[in-house]
Design brief:
Layout: E1 9-11, E2 18-20, E3 22-25, H1 43-58, E4 63-65, H2 73-77, E5 90-95, H3 101-115, E6 120-126, H4 131-150, E7 154-160, H5 165-173, E8 179-182, H6 192-200, E9 204-207, H7 222-228, H8 233-242, E10 249-253, H9 261-266, H10 273-292, H11 294-299, H12 316-329, H13 332-339, H14 359-365, H15 372-386
Parallel strand pairs: 3-4, 3-10, 4-5, 5-6, 6-7, 7-8, 8-9, 9-10
Antiparallel strand pairs: 1-2
Helix pairs in contact: 3-4, 5-6, 8-10, 10-12, 12-13, 12-15
Length: 398
């Protein structure tokens, strides 16, 4: 009989939950992004969800993560999880902040009805993506979440975020949250100061979408494949993230059971993750430095204001980040996927493309950048290389 590998586990900060280093994310296997009559969910799709959960649990991936914004995901889990002994799984759902706290509780109740559970282990305020949403969360929603915790319907309270790092740090410093869901990986390390701050407060750290927002790594360019050899780029990214003790779990948004396979295989190197990931990271950085120029590679982001302070809200830092990886590692499809969300994803991916450039105003905004002229030229170059038809988000989160 084959031995089924169990993934390692880490203490999820002050929640004291023993969490697997991979979580089973619930935003890719569901039947629909919209709420539909449960009778409309095809049996074939539901059986696939069941097989995904079975595969996850068989490898010890018993943290099941979903959200009210993930369409039929909660309803479909509600047909499965009540059949599993409650102590054998950890479930997280998420509800976006609301101006009216009563509406926030109403949406939470819908989630619980869908999941068919008495309580959730982890409950996130979903998408604290700017200062206005942080204020909403801290002035109404968090108080209601605490009441739910006192009533035994929620065990621990956290938040998910796509915000700028300074907003994330302010949310952490509020002391209101036990854990955080955020973006951080090889292709985007800007949130590292927030992760360090979370560690100081003994918060759990959950990494959002390492395979998709972490570089569209399920469909990597050949150059990236070659540089990560003998490991798949997804495996490199897993090990790179898990080299940091501050990181506790990575969300794997599986659409089918086999989506876990590469990641489970990577855990063969878990106890040698530094020796495995570090040489690949150095190889990638060396390639980027050679392709982009050492001075630009080391300092391109210096003096770049956040997009809400840029003329026409052009998201300069994000555009340059994406173009660096497109140019340096051939990650063009990833860069296009993200670039064309700009201007179309509301607060989930804020700011506009370089089509909105106002050069005189931008020159003034970039007065603290060592590369003012090059930044402006590179923005125009990036737009020409990356622009396609505008992209709409499939969901409110991820």
């Amino acid at each position: 009989m084959a031995i089924i590998a169990k993934v390692p586990r880490r203490r999820f900060g002050r929640t004291n939950i023993d969490l697997p280093v991979f979580s089973c994310g619930g935003m890719r296997y569901q039947h629909s992004w919209d709420d539909v009559d449960p009778a409309e969910i095809p049996d074939l799709n539901q059986r696939n969800v069941e097989k995904v959960i079975e595969r996850a649990l068989s490898h010890g991936i018993n943290h099941i993560e979903t959200a009210r914004g993930y369409g039929t995901s909660e309803i479909q889990l509600g047909r499965i999880l009540p059949q599993v002994p409650r102590e054998e799984f950890i479930v997280q759902t998420k509800v976006g902040p609301k101006e009216d706290p009563a509406e926030f509780v109403k949406v939470f109740n819908t989630s619980m009805d869908n999941l068919q559970l008495d309580y959730v282990d982890l409950f996130s305020i979903h998408g604290i993506n700017n200062r206005e949403l942080l204020d909403q969360s801290l002035n109404g929603c968090i108080q209601e979440a605490i009441k739910l915790k006192e009533a035994g319907r929620v065990r621990h309270i956290g938040f998910s975020t796509h915000a700028s790092t300074n907003v994330i740090i302010d949310a952490i410093n509020s002391g209101a949250f036990d854990y955080i869901n955020l973006h951080w990986y090889f292709v985007n390390d800007f949130n590292w100061p927030a992760i360090q701050m979370a560690r100081q407060q003994d918060m759990g750290v959950f990494i959002i979408s390492p395979n998709d927002k972490g570089g569209k790594l399920y469909a990597p360019p050949q150059k990236l494949v070659d540089l990560c050899h003998p490991y798949h780029p997804m495996q490199f990214n897993d090990l790179y993230c898990l080299c940091r003790d501050e990181v506790h779990t990575l969300s794997l948004g599986a659409s089918k059971p086999s989506d876990f396979d590469e990641h489970i295989d990577a855990m063969r190197m878990y106890h040698h993750r530094d020796k495995t990931a570090d040489p690949i990271a150095k190889r990638l950085n060396r390639e980027l430095k050679q392709g982009l120029g050492a001075d630009w590679f080391d300092n391109w982001y210096v003096g770049l204001p956040e997009c809400d302070l840029m003329p026409n809200h052009v998201n300069v830092r994000e555009i340059l980040r994406l173009y660096n990886f497109a140019k340096g590692l051939d990650m063009v499809e990833f860069a296009k996927m993200r670039y064309n969300l700009l201007g179309n994803a509301d607060h989930w991916f804020p700011g506009n493309t370089a089509a909105e450039l106002d050069v005189p105003a931008l020159e003034n905004a970039l007065q603290h950048s060592p590369f003012t002229s090059k930044v402006i030229d590179t923005l125009a170059e990036a737009h020409e290389a990356l622009v396609e038809a505008p992209v709409k988000r499939a969901s409110e989160g991820g």
